[in-house]
C-alpha cells in the first residue's frame, strides 16, 4: 500500500489545482436549532464544480500524472464520473465513464454534458468498476479510482487545507463528514490528523466503513437505500481504511428517513439543494445521532448537490 498523503503533499496539491477549483464558502448557522449552544459551520462543498468535492481529486489526478492518448477511464456512482468528465473537458483529455443503472439521471446528464462517453451498465458501482477495469486494460487508458488511490485522497484532502485556511485560529473541534468509499474522510483525516475530531456518517443501508472497522479489514457489504448512488461503496478503499483506522474518531449510521429530513431542512431553511449523500453529515446533527458537548465547535461538510429538482420537491413535501 502506498504511504498516505502528508500535509505537505496535500498543500502542494492545493497549489496545483486551486486555479481549477472553486474555493467554496463556509456558512455559520444558529446552533440552537439543534439544541446546541454554539454556531455550527457548514462547508458548502456542494457548490464545487460538477456539484461535489470529487472535482478536487479528479483535477489532482489529471494534472499530476502522465495521461496516455487513450485518456482516462473511471467507474462511478455518478459524482466521481461527473467530476472526471468536467476536469477532462477543461484539460482537453478524452474520458470514458462507467456508471451503474442506479446512478442519478442528473449525474449521468452532467457526464454527457461535459463531453465524456457515459457507459450506463450494471446493477451497482462494483459492476461498473469491473467493466471499467476491463476497458482500461484493453485500451491503455489511465484509471481514476473514485476513492482508493493516493492522488484521489490527496486531492480530497485539499478540502481540509482550504477549510483550515478559512477558519484560521478558530478551527472546529469536530468535523462531520459523509462516508462512501472513504476518499473524502481519509483526505480530511490526513490533513487534520488528531488536531480535529473527524466523525464519519453513513446510511444504515450503506455502511462499508463501519463494517470494515468492526471486522478489522475492508469487507464487502450489501448496499441499498436513499444514498446508494453516492455513498454506496460495496467495499471501502484499503488506504482509506488504514487512515480511518488510525485517525478518525468514530463512524455513525442513520436512517434514510433522517437523511431525507435533512435534505428538506437544507432546502426549506437555507435554500441549499443537497443530494442524499451531501446531506448525510447534516442529518447526523439534526437527528441527534451526533450530540455535541456544550461549547463544542462543529463543522459539517455538505459534499454534494446532484439531485433532480423534481425529486427534491417530492422529498420536501413528504418530510
How many helix segments?
Answer: 13
CATH class of the largest domain: Alpha Beta
Q: Mean pLDDT score, rounded?
A: 94
Biggest sheet, in brief?
A: 6 strands, mixed
Helical percentage: 40-55%
Low-confidence region ranges:
none
Overall 3D form = globular
- First and last CA, distance: 44 Å
Strand content: 5-15%
Find the structural class using helix and strand composition.
alpha/beta
Architecture overview:
The chain is of the alpha/beta class and 319 residues long. It folds into two domains: 7-51 and 150-318, Rossmann fold; 54-143, 3-Layer(aba) Sandwich (Rossmann fold), CATH 3.40.50.1100. Helices cover 45% and strands 14% of the residues. It has 13 helices and ten strands. The protein has helices at residues 7-17, 54-64, 79-91, 105-113, 125-139, 150-167, 183-192, 208-215, 228-231, 238-247, 256-270, 276-286, 309-318; strands at residues 26-29, 40-44, 72-75, 95-99, 117-120, 142-143, 174-178, 197-203, 250-254, 298-302. It has a six-stranded mixed β-sheet with strand order 1-2-10-7-8-9, with helices on both faces. Strand 4 (95-99), helix 4 and strand 5 form a beta-alpha-beta unit. The radius of gyration is 18 Å and the shape is globular. The termini are far apart.
Short account of what is shown:
The protein has 319 residues and is an alpha/beta fold. Helix content is 45%, strand content 14%.
Break the fold down into its secondary structure elements and pairings.
Blueprint: H1 7-17, E1 26-29, E2 40-44, H2 54-64, E3 72-75, H3 79-91, E4 95-99, H4 105-113, E5 117-120, H5 125-139, E6 142-143, H6 150-167, E7 174-178, H7 183-192, E8 197-203, H8 208-215, H9 228-231, H10 238-247, E9 250-254, H11 256-270, H12 276-286, E10 298-302, H13 309-318
Parallel strand pairs: 2-10, 3-4, 3-6, 4-5, 7-8, 7-10, 8-9
Antiparallel strand pairs: 1-2
Helix pairs in contact: 1-2, 1-6, 2-3, 2-6, 3-4, 6-7, 7-10, 11-12, 11-13
Amino acid at each position: 500500500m502506498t504511504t498516505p498523503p502528508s500535509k505537505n503533499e496535500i498543500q502542494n496539491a492545493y497549489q496545483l489545482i486551486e486555479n481549477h477549483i472553486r474555493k467554496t464558502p463556509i456558512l455559520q448557522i444558529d446552533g440552537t436549532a439543534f439544541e446546541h449552544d454554539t454556531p455550527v459551520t457548514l462547508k458548502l462543498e456542494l457548490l464545487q464544480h460538477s456539484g461535489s468535492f470529487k472535482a478536487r481529486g479528479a483535477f489532482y489526478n489529471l494534472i499530476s500524472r502522465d495521461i496516455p492518448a487513450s485518456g482516462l477511464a473511471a467507474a462511478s456512482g455518478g459524482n466521481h464520473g461527473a467530476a472526471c468528465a468536467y476536469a477532462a473537458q477543461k484539460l482537453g483529455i478524452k474520458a470514458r465513464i462507467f456508471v451503474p443503472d442506479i446512478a442519478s439521471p442528473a449525474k449521468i446528464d452532467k457526464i454527457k454534458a461535459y463531453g465524456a462517453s457515459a457507459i450506463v451498465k450494471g446493477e451497482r458501482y462494483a459492476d461498473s468498476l469491473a467493466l471499467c477495469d476491463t476497458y482500461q486494460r484493453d485500451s491503455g487508458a489511465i484509471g481514476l479510482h473514485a476513492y482508493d488511490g493516493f492522488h484521489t485522497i490527496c486531492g480530497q484532502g485539499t478540502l481540509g487545507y482550504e477549510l483550515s485556511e478559512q477558519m484560521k485560529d478558530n478551527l472546529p473541534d469536530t468535523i462531520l463528514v459523509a462516508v462512501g468509499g472513504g476518499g473524502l474522510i481519509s483526505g480530511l483525516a490526513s490533513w487534520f490528523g488528531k488536531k480535529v475530531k473527524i466523525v464519519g456518517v453513513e446510511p444504515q443501508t450503506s455502511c462499508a466503513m463501519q463494517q470494515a472497522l468492526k471486522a478489522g479489514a475492508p469487507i464487502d457489504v450489501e448496499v441499498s437505500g436513499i444514498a446508494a448512488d453516492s455513498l454506496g461503496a460495496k467495499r471501502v478503499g484499503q488506504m482509506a481504511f488504514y487512515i480511518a483506522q488510525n485517525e478518525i474518531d468514530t463512524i455513525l449510521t442513520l436512517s434514510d428517513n433522517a437523511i431525507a429530513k435533512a435534505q428538506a431542512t437544507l432546502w426549506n431553511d437555507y435554500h441549499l439543494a443537497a443530494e442524499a449523500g451531501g446531506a448525510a453529515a447534516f442529518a447526523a446533527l439534526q437527528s441527534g445521532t451526533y450530540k455535541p458537548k456544550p461549547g463544542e465547535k462543529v463543522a459539517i461538510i455538505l459534499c454534494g448537490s446532484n439531485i433532480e429538482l423534481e425529486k427534491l420537491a417530492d422529498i420536501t413535501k413528504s418530510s
